[in-house]
Amino acid sequence: KAGVTQTPRYLIKTRGQQVTLSCSPISGHRSVSWYQQTPGQGLQFLFEYFSETQRNKGNFPGRFSGRQFSNSRSEMNVSTLELGDSALYLCASSLGGFRDEQYFGPGTRLTVT
Amino acid sequence: AQSVTQPDIHITVSEGASLELRCNYSYGATPYLFWYVQSPGQGLQLLLKYFSGDTLVQGIKGFEAEFKRSQSSFNLRKPSVHWSDAAEYFCAVGPFSGGYNKLIFGAGTRLAVHP
User: Fold this and answer.
1) Is the peptide bond before B7 cis (omega within 30 degrees of 0)?
2) Is residue A102 less than 8 Å (CB to CB) from chain B?
3) Are A44 and A94 in contact (CB under 8 A)?
4) Which residue on chain A is closest to B92 by alpha carbon?
5) pLDDT the model gives residue B97
6) Chain A interface, mutation test: which of B34, B49, B97, B100, most A Cβ atoms within 10 Å?
7) DSSP state of B32
8) Do B100 and A56 touch (CB under 8 A)?
9) How many Cβ atoms sit within 10 Å of the Cβ of residue B105?
10) Where does the pLDDT of residue B98 fall: very low under 50, low under 70, confident under 90, or very high at 90 and above?
11) Taking CB atoms and an 8 Å cutoff, what residues of chain B touch A56?
């Protein structure tokens, strides 16, 4: 069974631009969660999607948004990029139940210059 | 508010030595607790989890963890460390009622293994 895939793996953007990251979950998984990992703030929850609906959201500004498609693939978008958005963005997929294990992808490394 | 504290930012052990990584949590109810490992350039891999029942939990790669409610701790242990265990280890708590798959992570402990 293929794991969680994230594209692209590396990305360099300029301040003020916007970026879209993609996450393809494990086949059959309906939940996709996104996390931001930085040296200063660690791993922080961004949001979770289940069956195309945002089910939970972390404490991030509205510049961070996401969506999920009918095939469970998810995208997250960051608009008006700031230097502080440089981070490793991880997505995790699961069946979606309360105790179902989350499987993480390798992440997308975003650098904002 | 829920939180996770990993007091040790960096730990170095010799190969073959025993290992204990500390994790303390703050949560009002019975927590769901996890340990994940992250190798350089990789995502997170689940080592083990505690939901309820036996407080000593066995995981993959020879790791175990013990849940101690009285100490609000969930320390990770391994009797004999291998060089391939060098990585960063994260303790996490969650999900929460209404929070579904939201996990709160500790800051991580980076493990170095000397030959």
Assistant:
1) no
2) yes
3) no
4) A43
5) 66
6) B100
7) P
8) yes
9) 21
10) low
11) 98-102
Q: A89 — phi, psi (to 5°)?
A: -105, 120
Q: Do A102 and B99 touch (CB under 8 A)?
A: no
Cα separation, B102 vs A47, whole angstroms: 8
Q: What are phi and psi of A24, to 5 degrees?
A: -110, 115
Whole-number Å distance between alpha carbons of B98 and A30: 17
Q: Is the dihedral of CA A44, A46, A50, A51 positive or negative?
A: negative
Q: Are B34 and B49 in contact (CB under 8 A)?
A: yes
Distance CA A22, CA B76 (A): 33
Residue pair B110/B96 in contact by the 8 Å Cβ criterion: no
* H helices present in chain A, as ranges: none
pLDDT digits (tens, 9 = 90+) for A21-72: 999 999 999 999 999 999 999 999 999 999 999 998 999 999 999 999 999 9
- Could you give the 3-state DSSP secondary structure of residue B71? helix
Contact B46 A31 (CB under 8 A): no
